[in-house]
Structures are given as structure tokens and as C-alpha cells.
Amino acid sequence: MSSPSCTLRLCNSLKELDPADEGYATRFVDCVLVASREVSASDLHLQPTDAGLDVRWRLDGVLQSIGTFPRGESTDPVTRLKVLAGLLTYRQDVPQEGRLQNDRFGDAMCGVEMRVSTFPTLRGERAVVRLFNNSDQPWFLDDLGLPADISDTWHHRIAETSGALIVCGPAGSGKTTTAYASIRQIVNDTDGGRSVVTIEDPIEVEVAGVAQSQVNANSDFTMVTGLRSLLRQDPEVIFVGEVRDPQAAGITFQAALTGQLALSTFHANSAAAAISRLSDMGIEPYVLRSCIRGILHQRLVRKLCEDCKQPIASESDMAGWKIETRDGIFASATGVGCQSCQGTGYRGRMLLAELLVPDDGSIRQDLISRSEVSEIEKFAVANGMVTVRERAVTAIRAGKTSPAEARRVLGFL
Ligand SMILES: [Zn+2]
């Protein structure tokens, strides 16, 4: 977890390094990666600017600046990352991506998967490292922190032998984490008795007991060709991460129709919007109707720091939320400088989720024949779905998150 002033501590450590030193880039990279792991940062950004190398990290979903540092006189931290990831150091004009070998860091980075991507900009190459710490990951469904009613229903759904289950949300909403926890749960519940095969772009986390494969556009191993071959591999459960085009969506749903459980992630801003987007992609209503066993939509909001949260003081603290009573509603104490949250006012995150389960045949028929997102949602709510927006209101009322944070994440839903 974050320790007090870890941002400041890293900034000071980096300032102490000598840019003229031959080992500058090596020490720089070691220092930022180890610190990123210590604070559980999910991403590390190195961006060249006029003044040097701008370093930022993402904590609890929010980007924070570490500072701007020299690039090094004879060595460069971005080049060092490229070497560690086995990228072509002489090519600085094309985007590249690779995986960092973490064994050179010894125990310091043990269990952390790191992917580097570089991108040419006007001021030089920008690098982003994405960090996945396996020991920080929610392992099974119960570890995700989903509302209990959703967790129970989802648990039943993943035990089914056919149909489609979709986890949706925008980028950074934790949908891949939920998908991986679901897969681990399937493997665990059946003691490895079900044949689980994945096709991913890219593989983010390795899951024991599962045959994972990664598309490779250079060798014509695409989502579509991969899915076709995969279905000849006698799978019982397939995971597609993530469905992006109509063709891949079509094959996934065909699989779900013909006796496989198909789990996939999908970019959509609500469960109702997912149905509408799939229809727009050309998936026939009868296919959606017969296939969909559940659409889980989720968002991650930061939790208020228990040490410094404050009762809301004015209407502006409500950030536009119309909630009748203000009892028990708290705002963050941003800038006040509590040690345990580094002055951000927040510590850790929680999931807000909604689960659309078109169970009954007539409900399914009605639900999927509607095309407007608002109509689909209204119908789902009438049939028992609790929306993410309502979950947000509950979390605000319980003082777990602030109105401003819920607004930041949900927008004006
Ligand atoms: Zn605090």
C-alpha cells in the first residue's frame, strides 16, 4: 500500500542520481520500477519534454506527477527500458511493445508482470510501463468486492455449460481483473475438470490450468482466425479478451450457441449499452436472445480516506448529485495533507457494478427487441437490475466514496 510521501521519496531518490554517471539510466529505471511496485502503481509514464524526462505514475486510477529529471548524458532511461524488454533500440521512429524480464531485479519485482510500450513523439520516445502485481490481484470472485447479490448470481452463471457472459466497462474499470478471477474460479470450482482456452490481445496475466493464447497480427494469427481454430480444440469454456470487431463477436456468439460457455470483455458504458452496441455490430437479435446469460458492467471509484474524510460542507460538494438527506455523506479533504493518503483524500478503490440477467424467455424477448439504450435500461430495472448509478448513491450515502469522485468516474450518467 501507499506509504506517506512515497511520491516525494522517489522524487528525492531520482534527484540524487548523477546524470553524468554511466550507470545513470540503469539506476534510474531500477529505482522507479521498485518504487512503483512498493506503492502498487498500475502504470509508469516516462515522457520526454523540453526540460527533461517527465515521470508520472498511476495510483488508484489517478495519474500523479513525480517530477522532471535529466535524461542522462550518455545513457537514457527510455533506451534502458527498451533493452530490458528486448525492443529494437535503433528504431526510435515506430511504436514498439514488449515484456520486461523481471528476474534481473531479484526479489524486488518478484511476481510482477511488466509490459513496456514506446511511442515516438516530437520530443523523443515516450515509454509507458504497465505493472501487474499478481499478489495484489483479486484471485477469486469473492476477492473482487462485488456486491454480494451480483457475486452470487455471477458465480452461478460461470458454472453454466453454454451461453455468453460479458464483462463490460470503459478502459481502467477492472474488467480484465474480473474476467481473470472468473476463470480462476471456474478452474478452482471444477478442480481443473473443464477445458478452458483463451484468446487474448495481449495476455495480461498467466492463469494456471488454462491454455492461453495471444494473437499475433504479424503472423496472421488474428482474433478471427484464432477463434476459428480454437473451437476445433474441444474447449468447454472460452475467454475472448476483448471483443472489438463484428466478426470476432459473431464467432464468439456462435460458440455460445453451440455448447460452449463464452466469457468476454467488451467496451461499453453500461450493461444496456452493451446490448445496443452488440446489435449495432450486426449480432442478430435471436442470437443475443438465446445466448446472453449475463452482462456485468463495472466501474472503479476511489474510497475516501477514513483518517481525513469530512462531512460535506456545501451544495457544491454534492457535485450535482440529487440526494435528499446529507447525513453521512462525506467529501475528501484534498490538499489538507493527511499522511495516510498523501493528501489525496482517498485510499484504495471499490467496485460499483450492475448485472443484467435476461433470464425469463419473455423478458429476454422484450429486452433485446428494444433498441434505445434508455429503453433497455428501463426494462432491465423494472425486472430487478440495480444500476451502477444507484450503487454509487448507496456508496455515497454510506460515506465510502465522495459525490465528486462518483461524478468523476461516472460522468453524468
Ligand atoms: Zn487522508
CATH class of the largest domain: Alpha Beta
Ligand set: zinc ion
| Strand and helix order | HHEEEHEEEHEHEEHEHEHHEEEEHHHH
What portion of residues belong to β-strands? Answer: 25-35%
Radius of gyration (Å): 23 Å
Number of strands: 15
Provide mean pLDDT, rounded. Answer: 90
The description of the largest β-sheet is: 7 strands, mixed
Give, in spatial order, the strands making up the sheet with the most strands.
9-8-10-11-7-12-15
Number of helices: 13
What is the general shape?
globular
* Fourth CATH level, the homologous superfamily of the largest domain: P-loop containing nucleotide triphosphate hydrolases
Task: Examine the secondary-structure arrangement and name the CATH architecture of the largest domain.
Answer: 3-Layer(aba) Sandwich
CATH topology descriptor of the largest domain? Rossmann fold
pLDDT < 50 runs, ≥5 residues: none
Explain what the structure shows.
There is one protein chain. By secondary structure, the chain is of the alpha/beta class. It folds into 2 domains: 6-135, Beta-Lactamase (2-Layer Sandwich); 137-410, Rossmann fold, CATH 3.40.50. The chain is built from 13 helices and 15 strands. It has helices spanning 6-16, 24-38, 77-84, 148-157, 175-189, 223-230, 246-257, 271-280, 285-291, 361-369, 373-382, 388-397, 403-410; strands at 43-49, 52-59, 62-69, 96-100, 112-121, 124-133, 163-168, 196-200, 211-214, 237-243, 261-266, 292-304, 310-311, 330-331, 346-356. The chain has a 7-stranded mixed β-sheet with strand order 9-8-10-11-7-12-15, sandwiched between helices. A 6-stranded antiparallel β-sheet has the order 3-2-1-6-5-4, with helices on one face. β10 (237-243), α7 (246-257) and β11 (261-266) form a beta-alpha-beta unit. α2 packs across α3 (77-84). The longest helix is centred in the first third of the chain and has 15 residues, at 24-38. The chain is globular. The site of zinc ion has 7 residues, from loops.
